[in-house]
Amino acid sequence: xxxxxxxxxxxxxxxxxxxxxxxxxxxxxxxxxxxxxxxxxxxxxxxxxxxxxxxxxxxxxxxxxxxxxxxxxxxxxxxxxxxxxxxxxxxxxxxxxxxxxxxxxxxxxxxxxxxxxxxxxxxxxxxxxxxxxxxxxxxxxxxxxxxxxxxxxxxxxxxxxxxxxxxxxxxxxxxxxxxxxxxxxxxxxxxxxxxxxxxxxxxxxxxxxxxxxxxxxxxxxxxxxxxxxxxxxxxxxxxxxxxxxxxxxxxxxxxxxxxxxxxxxxxxxxxxxxxxxxxxxxxxxxxxxxxxxxxxxxxxxxxxxxxxxxxxxxxxxxxxxxxxxxxxxxxxxxxxxxxxxxxxxxxxxxxxxxxxxxxxxxxxxxxxxxxxxxxxxxxxxxxxxxxxxxxxxxxxxxxxxxxxxxxxxxxxxxxxxxxxxxxxxxxxxxxxx
Length: 433
Fold this sequence. Notes:
It is a single chain. By secondary structure, this protein is α+β, with helices and mostly antiparallel strands. The longest helix is centred in the middle third of the chain and has 19 residues. Helix 4 packs antiparallel against helix 10, helix 9 runs antiparallel to helix 10 and helix 15 crosses helix 16. It is built from 17 helices and 14 strands. Strand 9 and strand 10 form a beta hairpin. The chain folds into three domains: 47 residues, no CATH class; 173 residues, no CATH class; 130 residues, SH3 type barrels, CATH 2.30.30.490.
């Protein structure tokens, strides 16, 4: 840290076989050593001892409470959060910065930030992501802020959203021109690793598969940038395969981080801080959560979200679609539908739909329920071109009647870009390639 001036800790281990994991007993032993040393060392020496052991001592800490020895297993129960490892001043924030700087170096592509900003602005994302602002993150106005902090500064969810277009940009723009080849190779390995981690929530990803991707990325990273930029969060990646093996899934904190918005919403409006402001804030948050629990369901079956009664015009369209007369049956419509336990899609989203043994793309026009059947009106696309070297598929928009599909036939809502010739490019999820 002192020598390179980056204030970044460095971790030279890039292979899981080189790790020496601490046990629950090791942590307790070291913490109780700190407990004994606290009474005989002065402040500076004790601080250095804590840093050397990687532990912080508290008088009432759980690791010094003997009554918890049989209950608390700190290393066995612990899981690193991949969201913070990758996207909160994490590996992705750092790597994108390093790659763009490598492009600028030697005047290969001085305007790489602006170029990617324009590229990402051409993409549209599923409505649930609220992603219309992503191009601004890499604008000329934000560039110097990124360069000053030596990483990309943005919301973690925003950076996750740009990963698929970033992979295409790196392949089709940077690599195609031979710009910063080692940095690009490493960034593509990181994109593959992120994709595998995210997919582990819905697909079978084995610990061995994940370990191989982690090793491939770390080796490519060192080849591109050396060990100097290997921060502790890069080191965390080596532990993820073990977490997957032990727990069967990789946990992330996206949902928990979103909960911060609730107290912030009410704390912002607090003016009088003299009389029990903390209790007032707590009451507001509790009432908010009661309202959410009352108005929403914990049922994650396929369903319309916040459905409403269809208008007369919509009823006519639906009955005409089936070539039937209106029999007066109730019809519900919704802007948003849940098509699987882990996914939503909205009106105007481009989605992938199950079509026989394969799939096709289309744009959602509406969701509705008739006679207990959940359906979507979809404007279908025909496949025009499939890019075998990437996740890109290009589709031709059909000028014809709208199709009707059952909602559970929807496979994924995908990012898309509308081309000048009228075609639509989509990025296919890993399970549909």
